[in-house]
Write a structure and sequence with these properties.
Layout: E1 2-16, E2 20-27, E3 31-37, E4 56-63, E5 70-79, H1 88-104, H2 112-127, H3 132-146, E6 168-170, E7 190-192, H4 194-203, H5 208-213, H6 218-236, H7 241-250
Parallel strand pairs: 3-5
Antiparallel strand pairs: 1-2, 1-4, 2-3, 4-5, 6-7
Helix pairs in contact: 1-3, 1-7, 2-3, 3-6, 4-6
Length: about 260
């Protein structure tokens, strides 16, 4: 049995039986991990107050070959998520970000880029007037890009021509952005506006605050949301549970 420790971010906490909890977390070195926090539901548990969504924490655990779950020995919060999660809207956005990492990050693989993305997004939400909708769109685009499934917004994969200001098309199943000349005209294809393409390009080369400074419109953010949703559903075969809850609860406010 290996005893390990690392700094990580808490992504999910669910009850297990009467006294325990299953904690999902991510670290730069070890990737995604799921473990049992024994006795975490006891009133005077050593985990009391330490298992907050999106907290940055020092985590100690033990793992054994052949077992899916590790045993969590200790969690000490280094930095709580702050005011971002103090209201229902913030909790819904935070849950959606966390579920992206739970589904796309890999166990025992270098996850430094995922962790840096999460950290920078949370810092932007706490430290500057970056809208939550823009932050989530930025986070979605980059998560799908790091997973290797986001369509390239620069050139058409069919003819290799640049996707110019006239826009592009996302086919029904979200497998790639094609130019209007190569558009097969299939039903359900999504026409992509030039402003949306520019947003997608900008996220690939600039930080979240710089992207926010371009002041994308609500309609642009809404189309970015639709693009990410199509790509995500095409890859997973289903939509994120947290995303469905967020849309049902917030409606149009999710892109405002």
């Amino acid at each position: 049995m290996r005893v390990l420790s690392a700094e990580g971010w808490l992504l999910d906490v669910v009850d297990l039986q009467e006294l325990d909890r299953i904690v999902t977390f991510i670290t730069p070195e070890h990737g995604l991990k799921r473990g049992v926090a024994n006795g975490a539901r006891r009133k005077f548990s050593r985990f009391a107050g330490q298992l907050q969504l999106l907290s940055r924490a020092a985590i100690r655990w033990r793992e054994k070959d052949g077992r899916d779950l590790v045993r969590i020995d200790g969690v000490e919060v280094i930095r709580a998520p702050g005011t971002f999660l103090e209201d229902l809207e913030g909790i819904l956005y935070g849950s959606c970000m966390a579920e992206h990492l739970v589904l796309f990050a890999q166990e025992n693989e270098d996850s430094e880029l995922y962790v840096r993305l999460l950290s920078s997004t949370l810092e932007a939400l706490e430290g500057s007037p970056v809208s939550r909708a823009l932050a989530l769109r930025y986070f979605e685009v980059w998560t799908l890009r790091l997973a290797g499934i986001f369509p390239v917004p620069d050139e058409c994969p069919l003819c290799a021509n640049e996707l110019r200001s006239a826009g592009a098309t996302l086919p029904l199943h979200g497998e790639g952005l094609v130019c209007q000349e190569c558009d097969p005209g299939s039903g359900g294809a999504l026409p992509i506006r030039a402003a949306t393409l520019e947003f997608l390009r900008t996220t690939g080369s600039r930080g979240i605050r710089d992207v926010a400074a371009t002041k994308p419109t609500t309609s642009t953010l809404a189309q970015v949301e639709e693009v990410c949703g199509r790509v995500r559903r095409n890859f997973l075969g289903h939509e994120l549970r947290s995303y469905g809850v967020m849309r049902a609860t917030l409606g149009d406010r999710a892109t405002a």
